């Protein structure tokens, strides 16, 4: 949304910062609109726009942020990336240096000896980069350049033909540079076509908003934050930002990085584009230029913004610590219900299963403390689970460190699993992580870790085997004659693997006692959790008791995951007990209440542990 300057109520405090800046500098009319390209002298010196685009694609804007102007030298930074992609870093470095020249942008200065331009941000280097681009199928470079720049803007850009013609008719100095590059062999062919391509590249029409999004794309590792398209390879982003920080503001680059601290690029059309890597992009548009050819208000706005929002690269805070929460499995369990002895063993031994929940961006500085903590805590552990659900992004070196952590600890006998890895999964495996250590979610990871602990107990071998009704936990304390009376009124039901036992919304008219097999309770209805298991019951356990207490319909689906046999206690029988066997009813209710409170205690303990 473009906000009219001075509109009464800025919608957000961030917009308010931009409005204040806009007001502070709107009456500044210092500087001269470029006129050495005659067509540029028509620019309105009052035009002024400020834009910030975040790494996730939100755009804050004030002023003339949608007014088109020519990109000019800002294109140099981006097209350098295309040349790198086309020719590779080594060849480009042989032909174009990366040293600040201290000269004006249009200086006819080449490095003594090699004849290579000092850097790709001055005209000589930019013309060389343009001449090194591959041609498209029709033999034209400008079509590729236009498409490439459009990828950064996230929309189809075009060329201002009048500005192009105007520069082509008067750009004798740039022609001289082109021929010098040809003379020293930096360009391999007649530079005429290269120069026309370069003039057209400089005449690509953009808006202030485009510049902010282009900068945000650079801030986002080359991925356009709105379209999600890869505009440029991440490796080239690093190179582009490096030369922007040392050379992007011409002979004012040293002072710029000192005061503003953001890689940036300006153009004689009045645009400035600045990048805070990993966070945001800034675009400013104001045509009057200072002696170095940088937009006067562009420099001032960026200087103020950097100071007011603490954007200077060398004072920006480090990454968020990646270790968000550590807990163990004595309190937090998998969804699989356990028998009494299993519960007891897990309560005693669960501390040997540790979960580390990670968050944010994984880079060396955030992941190193995780690695250290894992090593410090490893002794005595049986399993370590890294939960990646809140990880937003990761670079390859930090994934490699995690893969090595898994390998190293596994060699020492500690089972390490990673869950909720999503798109990071294949990348972790590519870095050497054992594929078996990836678990889809925390529930599966905890279940596997619990099985490891339980497997040491001889009783585990018999776990899951068929039981008789009297062995069901809830019925165990009943007197034999009561049980026999009940059993006669409880029909048996069988379910094949995959068959539903109850469905969400069904009336709760029976309670189930599992004699054999396994069922899962799964979330139903819309939403991302749909189908996720929230409970697992095995032989000896019972479910469906909540409906006996509150009469509400079933809240979730229950599905047999193995061939399953149950005894079913109909609600009608339960109600008959009021008259026929009141003592039995009290006993049953006691047992049901006990089961519910055990459950509630478990959930409370989990909630407590998860709060950290
Ligand atoms: N097209 C302009 C030139 O080559 C670009 C210069 C600039 O924006 N600094 O002179």
Automatic annotation (TrEMBL):
Keywords: Acetylation, Hydrolase
Binding site for substrate: 73, 123, 167, 174, 198, 250, 268
PROSITE patterns referenced in this protein's UniProt entry, alphabetically: CNMP_BINDING_1 (PS00888), CNMP_BINDING_3 (PS50042), STAS (PS50801)
Catalytic activity: L-glutamine + H2O = L-glutamate + NH4(+)
GO molecular function, one term: glutaminase activity
E.C. designation(s): 3.5.1.2
All copies of domain STAS, residue ranges: 343-418
Residue span(s) of domain Cyclic nucleotide-binding: 474-595
Keyword Protease attached: no
SUPFAM superfamilies in UniProt: beta-lactamase/transpeptidase-like, cAMP-binding domain-like, SpoIIaa-like
UniProt cross-references to Pfam families, sorted A to Z: cNMP_binding, Glutaminase
PANTHER family: GLUTAMINASE
Assembly information from the UniProt record: Homotetramer.
Family as reported in the entry's similarity comment: Belongs to the glutaminase family.
Protein name listed in UniProt: Glutaminase
């Amino acid at each position: 949304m473009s906000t009219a300057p001075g509109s009464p109520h800025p919608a957000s405090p961030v917009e308010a910062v931009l409005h204040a800046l806009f007001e502070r500098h709107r009456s500044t009319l210092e500087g001269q609109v470029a006129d050495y390209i005659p067509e540029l002298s028509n620019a309105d010196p009052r035009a002024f726009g400020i834009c910030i685009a975040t790494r996730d694609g939100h755009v804050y804007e004030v002023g003339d942020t949608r007014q088109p102007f020519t990109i000019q030298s800002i294109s140099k930074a981006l097209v350098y990336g295309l040349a790198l992609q086309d020719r590779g870093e080594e060849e480009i470095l042989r032909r174009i240096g990366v040293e600040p020249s201290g000269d004006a942008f249009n200086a006819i200065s080449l490095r003594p000896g090699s004849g290579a331009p000092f850097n790709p941000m001055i005209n000589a280097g930019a013309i060389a980069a343009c001449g090194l681009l591959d041609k498209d199928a029709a033999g034209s470079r400008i079509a590729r350049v236009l498409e490439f720049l459009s990828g950064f803007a996230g929309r189809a850009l075009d060329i201002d033909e009048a500005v192009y013609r105007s520069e082509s008719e008067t750009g004798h100095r740039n022609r001289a540079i082109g021929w010098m590059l040809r003379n020293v062999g930096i360009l391999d062919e007649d530079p005429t076509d290269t120069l026309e391509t370069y003039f057209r590249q400089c005449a690509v029409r953009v808006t202030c908003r485009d510049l902010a999004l282009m900068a945000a794309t650079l801030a986002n590792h080359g991925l356009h934050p709105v379209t999600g398209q890869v505009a440029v390879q991440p490796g080239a982003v690093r190179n582009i930002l490096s030369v922007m920080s040392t050379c992007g503001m011409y002979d004012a680059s040293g002072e710029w990085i000192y005061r503003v601290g953001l890689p940036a690029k300006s153009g004689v059309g009045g645009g400035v584009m600045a990048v805070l890597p990993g966070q945001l992009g800034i675009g400013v548009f104001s045509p009057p230029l200072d002696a170095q050819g940088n937009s006067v208000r562009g420099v001032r706005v960026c200087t103020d913004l950097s100071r007011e929002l603490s954007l200077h690269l060398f004072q920006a805070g480090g990454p968020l610590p990646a270790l968000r929460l550590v807990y163990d499995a004595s309190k937090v369990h998998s969804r699989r219900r356990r028998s009494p002895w299993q519960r007891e063993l897990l309560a005693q031994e669960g501390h040997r299963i540790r979960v580390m929940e990670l968050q944010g961006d994984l880079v060396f500085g955030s992941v190193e403390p995780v690695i250290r903590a894992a090593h410090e805590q490893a002794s005595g552990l049986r399993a370590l689970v890294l939960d990646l659900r809140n990880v937003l992004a990761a670079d390859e070196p930090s994934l490699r460190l995690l893969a090595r952590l898994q390998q190293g600890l596994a060699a020492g006998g500690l089972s390490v699993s990673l869950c909720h890895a999503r798109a990071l999964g294949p990348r972790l495996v590519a870095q050497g992580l054992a594929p078996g250590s990836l678990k889809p979610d925390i529930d599966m990871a905890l279940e596997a870790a619990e099985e490891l602990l339980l497997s040491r107990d001889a009783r585990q071998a018999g776990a899951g085997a068929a039981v008789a009704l009297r062995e069901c936990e809830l019925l165990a304390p009943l007197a034999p004659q009561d049980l026999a009376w009940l059993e006669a009124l409880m029909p048996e039901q069988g379910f094949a693997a995959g068959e539903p036992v109850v469905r969400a919304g069904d009336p709760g008219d029976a309670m189930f006692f599992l004699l054999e097999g396994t069922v899962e309770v799964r979330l139903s209805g819309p939403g991302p959790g749909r189908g996720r298991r929230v409970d697992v019951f095995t032989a000896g356990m019972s479910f469906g008791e909540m409906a006996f207490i509150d009469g509400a319909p079933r809240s979730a689906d229950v599905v047999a995951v193995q061939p399953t046999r149950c005894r079913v206690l109909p609600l009608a029988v339960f109600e008959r007990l009021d008259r026929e066997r009141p003592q039995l009813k009290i006993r049953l209710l006691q047992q049901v209440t006990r089961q519910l409170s055990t459950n509630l205690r478990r959930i409370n303990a989990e909630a407590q542990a998860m709060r950290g």
